[in-house]
């Protein structure tokens, strides 16, 4: 499948959250409108409870102190700002004599006497200002004591202020008294009455704690339109921010994937690390005795040699899974090679400083340990020599062989041989290259070979490129040769073909 170009992916990623938000905007704005209605109802309920508490205190106090004669004390009480507060439009007294007074001074025809309960019964009641008064009817609380009565015309103007937010003309409320004496159908509407009859309008109700009044709040198209405008604005910001985050994430991931570490991880996941095999020949018989498995990173037709990534892979702790992948392939390939031929796999210290290699081999349960050998380089020092010694001897007991790679190029080579019980050495190309030259390292080559012969080590010369080098090495007693003179590292099919063309040797 053709991959989409980042130039296409970027705008798609950026606009995707905005599109999703736009698709969701309708249900979200409906939910938001419902939430705003709930919030408004809660706000009104809270304000009403607060008002009720204030009024109760004020009314109790006045009732205890009214002389019911409209004298100075009564007038002071009626006009006292603590009692004549923002919840009260007017308050007044009706005396037994039929006269009365109000906070404005004279008696006012505010009480609809026909709605008052039986005059025999004392106590509190609710009524309304007469409709004839021209303005909206207001709720009236009254308290009867015998033939005299005190009343408080409530002010509902606060409800307008509350209902103007967050948008004007978005709500409509009805206050329905639930008390006998004030007809049930008597309602006190506030706000846009048309909302109640709009298709799709929604309503919520609550009843005051004393069960005397029910409030029903409506909302409709205006609130939904307001919610939608909020959601569209939010869509722009939320969708835009999410889009920007997605885009940043995409580019970070892309850059990571393109970084060496990211590429190596992807390579591991795709099993791109494979062995190439370089033959080791006996120069006397020209027979192939074994192979070194050399790691290659194979991506499509592109093959990368380990020099480009192995040091970094080691540093990032990726060499262990790479070797694991390589070993899997080597073990799968081995049955296709002649039974007397071995394959040698390169290790790093970490493989034998912990039981990593041992566990891997145990997992494979490989039946011919002599056909699988390991190369331990002298270039990198082994930190935990104790652990390495015990790991190697455990594997040697099982029949596995170890070679000391790059012998003479590092330090501690001789000590490693002694302590780790290694019986095979690989003579580095650096020394082989000195053959036929007057390089002072040539004497070192002779010394290494002399040591190898003396201690009965098996020796393999690496990086052999000329027949003259083969001849010189043979004269010195080194017959196992690995190098371009005979063959380069090859993938298995090519190696099998190479062996066939040599007539099985
Ligand atoms: P090495 O273990 O010393 O492997 C021998 C290197 O010399 C290989 O390079 C091989 O291709 C190269 N070589 C062999 N004959 C000749 C020759 O005649 N002329 C020249 N010029 N070069 C020759 P390669 O495959 O690039 O590997 C380089 C190094 O990467 C290896 O050196 C080894 O240290 C490391 N390496 C390779 N595979 C693995 C692996 O699986 N694990 C670990 N830990 N290291 C590996
Ligand atoms: Ca090697
Ligand atoms: Ca080597």
Question: What is this entry, summarized?
Answer:
By secondary structure, this protein is an alpha/beta fold. The chain folds into 2 domains: 22-225, no CATH class; 257-501, Alpha-Beta Barrel (TIM Barrel), CATH 3.20.20.450.
Question: What do you see in this structure?
Answer:
This protein is α/β, with parallel strands linked by helices. The chain has 16 helices and 19 strands. It has helices at 6-65, 72-79, 157-163, 194-197, 221-258, 260-269, 310-315, 319-333, 349-353, 356-364, 385-397, 413-420, 429-432, 441-454, 467-476, 492-501, and strands at residues 88-94, 100-102, 105-106, 123-128, 139-145, 148-154, 171-177, 188-191, 202-207, 213-219, 273-282, 287-299, 302-304, 342-347, 372-377, 401-407, 424-427, 458-461, 480-481. The strands form three sheets. An eight-stranded mixed β-barrel has the order 11-12-14-15-16-17-18-19, surrounded by four helices. A six-stranded antiparallel beta sheet has the order 3-2-1-6-5-4, with no helix packed on it. β15 (372-377), α11 (385-397) and β16 form a beta-alpha-beta unit. α1 (6-65) runs antiparallel to α5 and α5 (221-258) packs across α6. The longest helix is centred in the N-terminal third of the chain and has 60 residues, at 6-65. The chain starts with 5 loop residues before the first helix and ends with a helix. 31% of the residues are buried. The model has no long low-confidence stretch (mean pLDDT 89). The chain binds ligand C2E and calcium ion (2 copies). One calcium ion is lined by residues 292, 346, 375, 405.
């Amino acid at each position: 499948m053709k991959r989409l170009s980042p130039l296409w992916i970027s705008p798609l990623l950026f606009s995707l959250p905005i599109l999703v938000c736009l698709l969701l905007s309708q249900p979200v704005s409906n939910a938001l409108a419902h939430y705003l209605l709930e919030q408004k109802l809660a706000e009104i309920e809270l304000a009403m409870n607060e008002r009720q508490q204030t009024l109760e205190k004020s009314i109790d106090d006045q009732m205890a102190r009214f002389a019911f004669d409209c004298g100075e004390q009564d007038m002071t009480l009626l006009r006292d700002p603590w009692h004549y507060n923002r919840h009260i439009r007017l308050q007044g007294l009706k005396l037994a004599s039929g006269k009365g007074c109000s906070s404005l001074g004279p008696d006012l025809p505010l009480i609809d006497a026909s709605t008052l309960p039986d005059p025999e019964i004392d106590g509190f009641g609710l009524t309304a200002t007469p409709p004839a008064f021209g303005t909206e009817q207001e709720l009236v609380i009254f308290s009867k004591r015998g033939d005299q009565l005190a009343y408080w015309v409530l002010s509902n103007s606060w409800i307008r202020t509350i209902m103007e937010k967050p948008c004007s003309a978005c709500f409509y409320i009805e206050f329905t008294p639930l008390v006998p004496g004030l007809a049930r159908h008597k309602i006190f509407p506030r706000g846009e009455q048309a909302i109640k009859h709009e298709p799709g309008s929604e309503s919520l109700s609550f009843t005051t704690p004393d069960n005397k009044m029910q409030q029903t709040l409506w909302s409709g198209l205006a609130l939904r339109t307001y919610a939608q405008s909020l959601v569209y604005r939010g869509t722009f910001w939320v969708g835009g921010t999410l889009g920007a985050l997605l885009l940043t994430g995409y580019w970070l991931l892309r850059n990571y994937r393109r970084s060496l570490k990211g590429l190596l991880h992807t390579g591991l996941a795709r099993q791109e690390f494979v062995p190439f095999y370089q033959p080791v020949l006996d120069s006397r018989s020209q027979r192939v005795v074994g192979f070194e498995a050399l790691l290659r990173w194979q991506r499509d037709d592109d093959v990368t040699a380990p020099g480009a990534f192995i040091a970094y892979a080691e540093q990032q702790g990726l060499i262990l899974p790479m070797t694991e992948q390589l070993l899997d392939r080597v073990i799968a390939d081995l049955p296709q090679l002649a039974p007397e031929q071995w394959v040698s796999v390169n290790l790093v210290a970490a493989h034998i400083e912990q039981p990593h290699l041992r566990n891997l081999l145990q997992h494979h349960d490989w039946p011919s340990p002599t056909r699988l050998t390991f190369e331990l380089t002298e270039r990198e020092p082994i930190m935990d020599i104790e652990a390495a010694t015990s790991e190697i001897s455990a594997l040697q007991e099982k029949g596995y062989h170890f070679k000391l790679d790059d012998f003479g190029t590092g330090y501690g080579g001789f000590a490693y041989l002694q302590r780790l019980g290694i019986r095979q050495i690989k003579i580095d190309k650096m020394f082989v290259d000195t053959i036929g030259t007057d390089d002072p390292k040539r004497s070192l080559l002779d010394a290494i070979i002399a040591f190898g012969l003396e201690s009965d080590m098996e020796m393999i010369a690496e990086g052999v490129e000329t027949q003259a080098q083969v001849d010189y090495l043979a004269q010195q007693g080194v017959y196992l040769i690995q190098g371009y003179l005979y063959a380069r590292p090859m993938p298995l099919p090519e190696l099998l073909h190479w062996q066939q063309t040599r007539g099985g040797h």
